[in-house]
Amino acid sequence: MAERDGALELPAEKIEGDVSFEHVGFRYGERGEPTLRGIDLRVPAGTTLALVGETGSGKTTLAYLLARLYDVDEGAVKVDGFDVRELSHGSLAGIVGLVSQETYPVHASVRENLRFARPEATDAEVEDAARAAQIHGLIAGLSEGFDTVVGERGYRFSGGEKQRIAIARAVLRNPPILILDEATSALDTETERAVGQALSDLSRGRTTVAIAHRLSTVHDADQIAVLDGGEVVELGTHEELVDSGGRYAALVAGQRRAETALAI
Question: What is the CA radius of gyration of the chain?
């Protein structure tokens, strides 16, 4: 997205992290059907909002509007009252961190890949970030440790390892707001546990918008927004939504049945 003339420079350390989606509407292409309609949500600083719903419900699009991977067609997305479209790209990159399973390290050393998030970081800070992401032991065990060249598109690493590298980058950048695309369903149980713990540690104390693919990962979210057809159809905590017996409760029951069937 283009940076506007006179874009605001806001230091990340000055940001509290209050996020609001104000009557947000969005569509892909000028004539396409709306992907999001009239979304109104507030994420108080330091809390977690989980976005759940079927594939195509709009949850990923909504979260990515916060990082300005797209721009709204209607309404606004704001951080501490500032419209994200008014911020410079550099400011927004320092304020909002994105962790996704779809991450591709560059063809450089592991150390350089991690330091990409904060070029001035010391070696000690890089290694501390790797420890926080539960990837330090694996990197240290490589032939050249942190100086090992990653390879094109990170072919040396599995999906879970690349995701933990992305988490380490986010730790190093230390943004006040996080978007977590918790796509861990393709990972083995042990790797999923390690990635899940690293994500949990990373989000603690930060404003977090989590795109939930597995509902078991969002039980402790402060708010859960259920999207359907680009609209928020339910909002509450896990317990509130399960007790209401609505769309979220049906999604939880469906995932439990699927998991039980796979275990047989």
Answer: 19
Segment 180-224, tens digit of pLDDT: 987 565 567 777 777 778 888 888 899 999 998 878 778 899 999
Cα→Cα distances 89→6, 75, 86, 123, 206, Å: 12, 20, 9, 26, 20
Question: The tokens of 149 are what?
Answer: 């060249």
Beta-carbon contacts of 235 under 8 Å, excluding residues fewer than 6 positions away, are 41, 223, 224, 225, 226
- pTM (whole model) above 0.85: yes
pLDDT (0 to 100) of residue 31: 77
Phi and psi at 192, nearest 5°, equal -60, -40
Judged against a pLDDT cut of 90, whether residue 35 lies above it is answered with yes
Q: 232 in the Ramachandran plot: left (φ > 0), alpha (ψ -120 to 50) or beta? A: beta
Task: Look up residue 59 and give its amino acid.
Answer: K
| 254: Cα separation from own chain's centroid | 24
Report the amino acid identity of residue 235: L
Q: What is residue 184's predicted lDDT score, i.e. its pLDDT?
A: 61
- Rounded Cα distance between 147 and 80, Å, is 39
Higher pLDDT, 176 or 117: 176
205-238 burial: b if 16+ Cβ within 10 Å, else e: ebbbbbbbbebebbeebebbbbbbebebebebbb
> Do the Cβ atoms of 17 and 46 come closer than 8 Å?
yes
